[in-house]
Write a structure and sequence with these properties.
With 107 residues, the protein is α+β, with helices and mostly antiparallel strands. It is built from three helices and six strands.
C-alpha cells in the first residue's frame, strides 16, 4: 500500500508536469524533460512557495553520493526557466541570494 497519494500530473499556474511521461506542458507547448530536469521540476512543484537551498536540491535531485556542485543546480534551473517561459510566462523560478530557489505563480 502506498502511504501517500501523489497525482499523475502536478500543476503550477498554467504549467503541468506529467509524472508518467516526464513531460512539461501548458499554453499549447510541451517538452520532454531529461531525468535531472524532471526530478528538479518535480521537487520545485511539490514545494511551491518554499525556498529550497542549493544543498537541499543537490541532495534530493543528484543524491548524497554525487560529485555535483551548486553550479549544476544553477545550470539546470536556467534550463527549466527557458522551458517554463515558453509554457507560462506567469510561472517563475525565483532565487534569493544565500537562501535558495522556489517556484511561484506571478499574479
Amino acid at each position: 500500500r502506498r502511504e501517500e497519494f501523489t497525482p499523475d500530473i502536478l500543476t503550477c499556474g498554467g504549467a503541468a508536469l506529467n509524472l508518467q511521461s516526464c513531460e512539461l506542458s501548458g499554453g499549447g507547448y510541451s517538452c520532454t524533460l531529461s531525468k535531472t530536469e524532471y526530478r528538479l521540476m518535480e521537487l520545485l512543484m511539490l514545494h511551491q512557495g518554499i525556498y529550497l537551498s542549493s544543498q537541499t536540491i543537490l541532495e534530493k535531485v543528484w543524491g548524497y553520493d554525487s560529485a555535483a556542485e551548486a553550479g549544476n543546480v544553477w545550470v539546470y534551473i536556467s534550463y527549466l526557466r527557458k522551458k517554463l517561459d515558453k509554457i507560462d510566462k506567469n510561472v517563475k523560478i525565483r532565487a534569493k541570494r544565500n537562501i535558495g530557489y522556489t517556484l511561484e505563480v506571478l499574479s
